[in-house]
Amino acid sequence: MYDKLTLKRILDAHPLIREELKRLYLQINAKLPKGVRLRFSWVYRSHEQQNELYNKRPKVTNAKGGQSIHNYGLAFDIVILFDKDNNGTFETASWEQDQYFKEVVTFFKGNGYTWGGDWNSFKDNPHFQKDFGYTWRTLKDLPTKLDSNGIEYPII
Using the 8-state DSSP alphabet, how is residue 152 labeled? Predict the structure, then answer.
């Protein structure tokens, strides 16, 4: 079982990680028990979307538009969905660090993704990224290429 919204969001990931991300997403969902699914709540974010989050209170990010790895399609945020009524709707969302969340963290870290929960200054538990050694400062200065989905990504 998988989440159609997540599969749609993966299409906005940087072309360099898009297929891998889809494959890993399907793999981890196959490992989760019936009634538990993973959703990517964010993958790519435009600068405008990033600024909206930056200005939100309570504070959810320190990054303005252009200062997030999401702005380059190399990050995603997660939420665990539960089908509490066993009717296939998966309407209950949780960001708690339960056993399923930890299983997802271990899985993606084991596949080369950096977890925001390991950061010292601003812990971002739902956040994962594969930045290939780049920072937002270096990514913003790279030449870009327009993808077939209409998003410009840095050429890595």
Answer: E
Crossing angle of helices 18-31/99-110, nearest 10°?
A: 140
DSSP 50-113: HHHHHT-SS---SPPTTSSGGGGT-EEEEEEEE-TTSSS---EEE-S--HHHHHHHHHHHHTT-
Query: For 4-154, CATH number?
Result: 3.30.1380.10
> CB within 8 A of 91, min separation 6: which ones?
81, 83, 84, 85
Report the distance separating Cα 5 and Cα 15, nearest Å: 18
Tokens of 38: 């993973």
pLDDT band at 108 (very low <50, low <70, confident <90, very high): very high
Threshold 0.85, pTM exceeds: yes
Where do the domains of the chain lie?
4-154
From the centroid of its chain, how far is CA 133? 17
Query: If pLDDT is split at 50, 70 and 90, which confidence band does 31 have?
Result: very high
